[in-house]
User: Which sequence fits this backbone?
């Protein structure tokens, strides 16, 4: 038996916000817009949304203070604004950080939760959530997860509940045209890691595998182009489509060891989420070759690669980063990784020794 849940209504394509008609009217009369400090203003997404809201006669208030890897403090501040303003729904515009923050903000607008209960529930229904991705990577526009930094445990942690699936998402690839090459690489590899990890997960289903394979097709064909200075709209459309599909995959399967280990590299070493995932992927795939050889061969076929060495060279070309960890760091990061659900979802006997070896592989 398997279950599939995807309650988000998705609009995809250029100018999809303006073409969505009265869609947002059913959510209320006043919205809280949640963004980072700059990018939503630069890429046109904030303007597109506010103009549409004004056309519909929907009032809005802006919270534009979301940082990369949003904090508990930030989402609480935004929720306080939303409650004070009496907003009816929340719109997250940006990459994964503003969208994840918006989900948790919507939850905090209707739930009284201390910092521990924030990650565990129980929850009552949040305000309706709308998302507008402006990068092609996280898939947060179609998932039930919001990731925050949690200083109480010293790493990133997920708020995970079907209640925070967005009600509506608008995926317009045109908003990614101003994204710089480094962010384009990082987010595309993040999306690829979602597709691969979901495909390899113990929780994979025949239905999630369909989306994973399709996502890999649309992402893989452009892997050799990502280090270029500019990408056409058609390529950016493929990348966003692949990212959305990969998000739909992890909404069913969750992520695995790559994400569980990558959180520490982001929290302590400052690597972006996508880059942390990317540099871990080659060693992860070497483990998967031992336990899921048939699926690994299918990945190489879809990506147009000859095997693990070819994949490793491709990732290394895009992400030449190395990370050297002290013995104390290895012990700490491993201890933080082992209790995560991402470990139990991994189709491999993950021991502390396996995690340490995978971290040590990043030195080269």
Assistant:
């Amino acid at each position: 038996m398997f279950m599939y849940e995807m309650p988000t209504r998705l609009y995809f394509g250029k100018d999809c916000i303006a073409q969505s008609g009265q869609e947002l009217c059913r959510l209320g009369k006043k919205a809280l817009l949640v963004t980072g400090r700059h990018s939503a203003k630069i890429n046109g997404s904030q303007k597109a949304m506010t103009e549409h809201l004004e056309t519909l006669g929907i009032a809005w208030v802006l919270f534009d203070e979301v940082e990369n890897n949003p904090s508990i403090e930030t989402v609480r501040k935004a929720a306080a604004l939303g409650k004070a303003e009496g907003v009816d729904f929340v719109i997250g515009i940006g990459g994964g950080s503003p969208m994840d923050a918006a989900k948790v903000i919507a939850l905090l607008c209707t739930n009284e939760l201390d910092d521990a209960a924030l990650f565990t529930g129980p929850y009552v229904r949040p305000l309706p959530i709308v998302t507008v991705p402006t990068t092609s990577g996280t898939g947060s526009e179609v998932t039930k997860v919001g990731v925050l930094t949690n200083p109480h445990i010293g790493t990133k942690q997920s708020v995970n509940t079907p209640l925070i699936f967005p009600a509506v998402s608008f995926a317009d690839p045109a908003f990614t045209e101003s994204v710089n090459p480094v962010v384009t690489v990082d987010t595309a590899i993040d999306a690829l890691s979602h597709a691969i990890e979901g495909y390899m997960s113990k929780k994979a289903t025949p239905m999630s595998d369909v989306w994973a394979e399709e996502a890999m097709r649309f992402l893989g064909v452009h892997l050799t182009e990502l280090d270029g200075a500019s990408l056409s709209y058609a390529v950016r459309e493929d990348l966003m489509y692949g990212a959305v599909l990969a998000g739909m995959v992890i909404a069913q399967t969750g992520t695995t060891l790559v994400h569980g280990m990558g959180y520490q590299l982001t929290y302590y070493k400052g690597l972006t989420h996508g880059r942390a995932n990317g540099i871990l992927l080659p060693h992860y795939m070497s483990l998967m070759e031992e336990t899921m050889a048939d699926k690994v061969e299918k990945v190489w076929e879809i990506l147009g690669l000859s095997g693990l060495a070819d994949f490793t060279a491709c990732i290394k070309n895009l992400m030449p980063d190395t990370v050297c960890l002290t013995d104390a760091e290895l012990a700490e990061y491993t201890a933080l990784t082992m209790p995560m659900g991402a470990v139990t979802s991994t189709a491999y006997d993950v021991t502390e020794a396996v995690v340490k070896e995978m971290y040590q592989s990043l030195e080269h």
The CA atoms of residues 94 and 131 lie 8 Å apart. The longest strand covers residues 89-94.
